[in-house]
Specification:
Largest sheet: 5 strands, antiparallel
CATH class of the largest domain: Mainly Alpha
Number of helices: 17
Order of helices and strands: HHEEEHEHEHHHHHHHHHHHHH
Strand order of the largest sheet: 3-2-1-4-5
Bound molecules: fe (ii) ion
Structural class: mainly alpha
Number of domains: 2
Shape: elongated
Strand content: 5-15%
Radius of gyration: 21 Å
Length: 384
């Protein structure tokens, strides 16, 4: 294998690990059959085929906290660290994946990776996946350093962390605000360390590969909007935190409703519409949550033209951050939609958003958001 071939081969491997760990994080947040998970599983399977073509069966070992692939320690990345941690938590020190593997088998692996150690899961070999469980000492992956990391990596790590936080809410544990602060600081630092905020957004274009969680998407989109408006300092941080927490009320909605692939019936829709109120009530009782996060959770489905929900009796003046979140949310819904169903390209999204500006969405903020998008388009030219 010449050096160039070798490097693309390692790229495929890193990509595979990123897809698997992101799929596992999504499986933990939603459920193992969620369409996001299925889509990542499919992409991971494609990466595996690329690797099989070059290298035959895939053999991974965890030895003393390192992941050994192709007889060498894999280059350290956050995705690799997360894989090592998931494998070791489940006591897996050796993993062999054979060519011929099919989607259901890979999904089984993702499911294992998504489980926390307190939930016992039977780890059984399947036709093309073999698990080795020998005892080898390992070191815990050190906690992440923010600032110098590239945004794609931060989001992969933080998505997993963030999901753990959301999971804690679901299981009625206390929300760790320090964790949320750290995540948002990571994003804000990453933005600040790039001279061009638009460029920092470029990884969003390849969301199909990395699958950022909805909340991290909204966080970055809100931060980008706030930055172009010249917002900085504490308010910028609060806007990021508000974005991360805007949908926290969904944790009180049944996963059956949240994960339903078809249209919600009237009763389910009524329940779904409770999430802004439930989120705000939860956040107002949680120490350390900025007031703005409470407001945004409550208002993010209200609309500029006063349609939307929750309904209020008296005229209601929404916060700027709620308008911004509604814009980011609308955009993210169209982007996500694009991945599974009909393709909406950026031009289609722009024309839909222009259509909404001034009625459902705040007009000036929408125009400014579209400027962010067009900058994004320029910065990413030729890569798709
Ligand atoms: Fe929402
Ligand atoms: Fe949302």
């Amino acid at each position: 294998m010449n050096p160039q071939q070798n490097s693309t081969h390692l790229d495929h491997f890193q990509k595979l690990v990123r897809l698997l760990t992101t799929a596992a994080a999504n499986a933990a947040l939603y459920h193992p059959e969620h369409r996001q998970v299925l889509r990542l599983n499919k992409q991971a399977l494609e990466q595996l085929h690329q690797l099989f073509n070059r290298h035959g069966d895939l053999i991974l070992k965890v030895i003393d906290g390192q992941l050994i692939y192709a007889n060498k320690p894999a280059a350290e990345s956050l995705a690799i660290k997360r894989l090592i941690s998931a494998l070791t938590k489940n006591g897996i020190s050796h993993l062999k994946i054979e060519s011929g593997i099919y989607a259901e088998e890979l999904l089984g692996l993702i499911n294992i990776l998504s489980k926390s150690p307190d939930k016992q899961i039977d780890i059984k070999d399947s036709e093309h996946i073999h698990y080795g469980r020998i005892e080898i000492r390992y070191k815990q992956a050190s906690s992440a350093q923010f600032g110098a990391l590239d945004l794609a990596e931060i989001s992969t790590l933080e998505a997993g962390r963030f999901m753990e936080l959301y999971q804690a809410v679901r299981s009625k544990q206390k929300l760790e605000m320090s964790g949320i602060h750290e995540i948002v600081n990571g994003f804000v630092n990453a933005f600040n360390s790039q001279s061009d905020a638009f460029l920092a957004l470029a990884p969003l274009r390849s969301m199909d590969e990395y699958t950022y969680t909805h909340s991290t998407n909204i966080c970055m989109l809100n931060l980008a909007q706030a930055k172009v408006l010249g917002i900085d300092g504490q308010l910028l941080n609060d806007i990021g935190i508000a974005a991360m927490l805007h949908d926290v009320g969904k944790m009180f909605i049944s996963p059956d409703i949240l994960g339903k692939s078809g249209k919600l019936n009237e009763e389910e829709w009524q329940i779904m519409q409770q999430h802004p109120r439930l989120g705000a009530e939860y956040l107002i009782n949680t120490p350390g949550v900025p007031r703005l996060a409470v407001i945004t959770a409550f208002e993010h489905h209200m609309r500029y033209d006063n349609t939307g929900y929750p309904k209020t009796k008296r005229p209601w003046q929404q916060h700027l951050c709620s308008y911004m979140t509604a814009i980011s949310d609308t955009y993210d819904a169209m982007r996500t939609h694009r991945a599974y169903e009909e393709a909406l390209d950026l031009n289609q999204i722009i024309s839909i958003m222009l259509d909404l500006a001034g009625n459902k969405l705040h007009p000036q903020l929408t125009y400014s958001f579209l400027q962010v998008l067009s900058g994004l388009d320029k910065s990413d030219n030729g890569h798709e």
